[in-house]
Amino acid sequence: MFALLSPAALSPGAAVGIDLGTTSSSIAVVRDGAPKIVHSLPSTVRFTDSAPLVGVSSPCIRSAKRLIGRSFTEVQNEPAVRAHFGPLLENTDDAAALRCPSSDQTISPEEASAEILRALLDAAEAETGERADRAVIGVPAHFAKPQRDATRAAAAAVGLESVKLLEEPVCAALAFGVSGADDELAIVFDLGGGTLDVALLMVGGGTCEVLSSAGEPWLGGDDVDTAIVKLLAKEEALGGLGARSGEALAAARALKEQLTVRKQAEVSEPASITLSRKQLEAASKPLFTAMQAPVIRACEASGVVLPGVVEDIGRGGKARSLGGRPAARPRAGHSLDRLLLVGAASRLHGLPKMLESLTGLRADTGVKPEEAVALGAAVQAGVLDGALEQVDCIGVLEAAMIRGLASGKRASQSKRRGR
Prior knowledge:
Layout: E1 15-20, E2 24-31, E3 34-42, E4 44-46, E5 53-54, E6 61-62, H1 72-75, H2 79-85, E7 89-92, E8 95-99, E9 106-107, H3 109-128, E10 134-139, H4 145-157, E11 162-167, H5 168-176, E12 184-191, E13 196-204, E14 207-216, H6 221-234, H7 246-258, E15 264-267, E16 273-276, H8 277-301, E17 338-342, H9 351-359, H10 372-384, E18 392-394, H11 396-418
Parallel strand pairs: 1-10, 10-11, 12-17, 14-18
Antiparallel strand pairs: 1-2, 2-3, 4-5, 4-6, 7-8, 8-9, 12-13, 13-14, 15-16
Helix pairs in contact: 3-4, 5-10, 6-7, 6-8
C-alpha cells in the first residue's frame, strides 16, 4: 500500500500524524514503512488547580473542536451550540470559550485542544522514545481559515515547530491507499461522534484530489445514543435511569457497540437494559435519512448520480435526490469506484448496508474506520520525513483554483484563435 524509501525508524524529532477529533483523538507514526497508531484517547479535558487531566469523564470540557476559531457572535444564536454547551458557553472578547465545570475556569477551545495535543505527544514519546516537533493534523474539509489558524495556534502552544493541516477525507484516502495505476473516484463517509463529513476524491498514481465535499456539523454517533435513550425511555426500559443522565447515554453507547456484532445487546451496570437490532434500526432510521443528504450533495456537486437515488432514469425519467430536488446527471466517465468508511461511528449496525445500497458499492475493509485519519496523516508525515514516497494531495480549494485558472487559460486561447 505504501512505497517504502527508508526502512529505518524515524529520526528523533520526527513528524507524526494526528487526528484531533471532536469526541476522540489519535496519534500515529511511520514504522518500518507503514503507519501505526501509538495512542488514542477521548477528546475531553478537566482543568484543575494542578495539571489538566485529558481523556477523563465528566465533569470536563468536551467537543472543543466545535468552537475552535469561531467567534461568540457567530455561534451564540445557533440552536445546536446552545443545546450542546448550554450555560458552559462563554464570551471572551467575542471569542467563543467554555467554562470548565470542574474548576469554573474559562478555557478557550485552543487551550483545550492544546492539552489534548500535549497528551498525545507525551504518549507517543513514551512509546517511541522520540519527541515529535513536526506534525500533520487532519482537519474537516469545511474548516475555514480562522479555524485552521486556531488549530495551528494550539499546535504551536505545545512545541510543534512545523504543522501541516490536511483535510480529513484526504487523510482517510491516504490510509486506504492511492498508489493504484488507474484513477479511481472514491467517496469518503466520515462519521464521528458529533460530525459527519462526506467527500469525493480522485485517487490514483500517487495523487489525491478533493473534487467536492459536504457535511453536517451537528450529526454523529452521539445522536444515535440520544435516540436510543429516547426510545428506551418511551418504552419504559431504562431500568430506572434518568433519560437525561450520563449513565443512560453511556449504556446506550455500550448497547450500540455490541449490536455491531450481535443481534441482541445487554448491559447490567449501572442498570439491567437490553436492546435489539430491530429497536436500534427504529431509533436510527430518521438519522440515517439525514445522513444521506450530504452524500447526495457531494455527489451532485461532482456530477455523480447515485444508484440508490435514481428514479426511472433508465426509462427516460428524472433523477431525483431523496430530498426531492432534481439530481445532477453524471459527467462523462464519472462513476463511483470506492466507498471508504471513516470514524468509529461508521461501524453502526445498518449504516454500511444503507451506504452500499445508496452507492452500489461495498465498503473497503482494509483500514479500521476509527484509525483512518490518524494513519493517513502519518503517511503524509512519513513523506515529509522522507520515509515514504511522495504523495501529491490537492484540497478542494486548491483544486477549484487550478480548474479556474485552466478554464481561464482555455477561454483566452479560444478567444485568440477566434480572431
